[in-house]
Amino acid sequence: MTFSGRRIEVRGTVQGVGFRPFVYQLARRNGVAGRVRNDARGVVIDAFAPAETLDRFLRVLESDAPPSARVRSVEWMAIADPVPADFSIDASDGGGEVRLSIPADLATCDECLAEVLDPADRRYRYPFTNCTNCGPRYSIVTGAPYDRAKTSMAGFVMCGDCRREYDDPLDRRFHAQPNACPKCGPRLVALTARHAEVTTADAIGFAARALRAGMIVAIKGLGGFQLACDATSPSAVQRLRDRKHREAKPLAVMVRDVAEAERIAALTAGERALLQSIERPIVLAKWKTDNPVCPPVCPETFGRQDCLPSTVGVFLPYTPLHHLLLRDAGVPLVMTSGNLCDEPMVTADGDALVRLREIADLFLVHDREIVARVDDSVARVIDGAPVLLRRARGYVPRAVEAARPFAEPVLACGAHLKNTFCLAAGTHAYLGPHIGDLESVETLRAYEAAIERMKELAGVTPALVAHDLHPDYFSTRYALAQEGVRTVAVQHHHAHIVSAMAEHGIAGPAIGVAYDGTGFGTDGTAWGGEILIAGYADFERFGTFRTIPLAGGDQAIRHPWRIALALLDDAFDGEPPLHVIPLFRDMPRRDIDAVRRMIARRFNSPLARGVGRYFDAFGAFILGLAETRYEGEIAFRWNAEADEGESRRYPFAIAGNEIDLRQTVIAAVDDLRAGRAAGTISARFHNTLAAATVELVHAARDVHGDLPVVLSGGCFQNARLAESIAGALRPEARVFMNHDVPPGDGGIALGQAFVADAKRRAEARPTFVPEEELVCA
Fold this sequence. Notes:
Elements: E1 4-13, H1 19-30, E2 33-39, E3 42-49, H2 51-63, E4 70-78, E5 87-89, H3 110-116, H4 160-167, E6 188-192, H5 203-212, E7 217-220, E8 225-230, H6 234-244, E9 253-254, H7 258-264, E10 265-266, H8 269-276, E11 282-287, E12 311-315, H9 320-329, E13 333-337, H10 349-355, E14 362-366, E15 378-382, E16 385-390, E17 399-401, E18 410-412, E19 422-425, E20 428-431, H11 441-458, E21 464-468, H12 474-481, E22 486-490, H13 492-504, E23 510-520, E24 526-534, E25 539-545, E26 548-549, H14 554-558, H15 561-571, H16 582-585, H17 589-600, E27 607-608, H18 611-623, H19 633-641, E28 653-655, E29 658-660, H20 662-673, H21 678-704, E30 709-712, H22 719-729, E31 735-737, H23 748-764, H24 771-776
Parallel strand pairs: 2-5, 7-14, 9-12, 11-15, 18-21, 21-22, 23-30, 25-29, 30-31
Antiparallel strand pairs: 1-3, 1-4, 2-3, 6-14, 7-8, 8-13, 9-13, 10-11, 11-12, 15-16, 17-20, 18-19, 19-20, 23-24, 24-25, 26-27, 28-29
Helix pairs in contact: 1-2, 5-9, 13-23, 15-18, 15-20, 18-19, 18-21, 19-21, 20-21, 21-22
């Protein structure tokens, strides 16, 4: 029998996910000799067997990889080493060029959960139980390759039993880097708000009793501290809101299992699958009436007692600690980030005991360090597929693949709100974890630290730095402050469209529909309602929306009655029937006159085209909402109000490829005067936006041909709007939306990276054709 030798390099997320034991067992079953090891770029296999056996071995490596692995490539070269007697797993090779191959944090698997709940098992009720198929990964890693010595488990010496599991290639804990048990692993304790340790043999049971008593508990979770309270108790939820200074923004609810989730939310099959996925995101789903969760968890009512929330964010436990706490508490729990409003989530014990002492009544802490801050991911099902709204735990640092290598390493600094950065090199674009709004010193520090950590893990030094056009964004200032690099400014909405093009591997050009609140435009206005003909390096604007003046700039966004007034004045030629609109009936005349003077004099009243601003204006004057309590609140509420059964729309105009909704405003006011329900008006508004968009996209297709259509921007987190537009276009057009990266500003860094690379390539192209090439032609 003739043996061949092959050195196989497997790249992707193949460390920390049981890939080497999988290779070992596959080799033993197929009679393959050799060895497997981790290196800084992934996994290397030296395999020796007959050629046909090796061919089959290679196929199975890709097709049957462990569920949490992400195999990006399998390449091999022939080798002529002496054939070993058997197959072995060798120590990792820490040398060579680093390529990020660290998996995301993985939810507790069924096997580990069964052990945690089994009184006869040595890991009974142990909150740090894990194996190669689950447990902490990215949040505990200090360097590459992914080995225990380069994690925050390095200081915990395994006991004999754990060491035997770790060394046994046939054990599911073989080389599970966080492997531990009650004898040798991290220890959990309960502390009072005054830092005194609670004397108890069961810290989790004690915390569960505190939760049932209405207390707030700070929990050291996987990627940071979380604040928990009884989600069925209005007083506990209100106490948490008051202490955390989170007046109105919805809170997520963690439930014991899918059955309990079904009691709270009317789940579709797609939402149920997303809820149970290995990533375990918070899933936005329809609020179910008569469920045990109290309405203040999702306070969409604005003081209206006859209203219930429309949507709830629900998720399942993803660590043994969460599983045990939910079972002991016996009620659904609010589980929200451990921070004060606008600050990053706390990760260190000392910081938590200081920063959260005015919020939490009890602390559950442990002695395993959280190396990387990772918030919970948020997703929803739109148009039949999962769409990430916040990309963090479970997904980071999973890469987005590029069709061709980046010309040079790129750092894309992202947007100002919902910030995420992107580091791209080779064919991989790594999105960092959700950072949040860059509006506090603590968040800025977290942003800078996360970028440095990703650069170190990936072994990448950027040569090109991309940033938004807006000069006052902190992310822009950060980019321009970097030394020894070239910088590239990228238009906000171009980046949105390219983020979806890159995700789907669309070569371009494409017709891009970019709808959001505001982004720095190129014509002196704030964009956000744009139809673009987009390639990677450049774009042209085909269509847009009629401008709205924002009296007071950001003040108008916080007080959208100002936007509503500007819209009404524009539609009614300065004489709207304010007396029939409840929002304005009791408003002081001096305030109305002051805003009108600002607009007339063009004083601090920038012009905006954002679809999000239209949502704010309509939501304000129809629902009677003068101000917003958090970013996107009124748009979210206006969408939630829409009557699912209403199919009519309002009139609109398109002139010079500019969508004009003045007729829509007049018709909506007529409906309001006629006493029609807000849900009817909202639905007709949505239907009008969709119809106007589809008409303008068809016009673009008439001019530019059968190009793919890409929908991106924060407004496409709105399922009704996205599905209406996609559904109307799809019979004739190929329609794409973001899925693995957020359509909002949390995905914009990916687009920035690809645009910057394309611009750099365009600059590098020769401006003349060499004579020898002309001759060859």
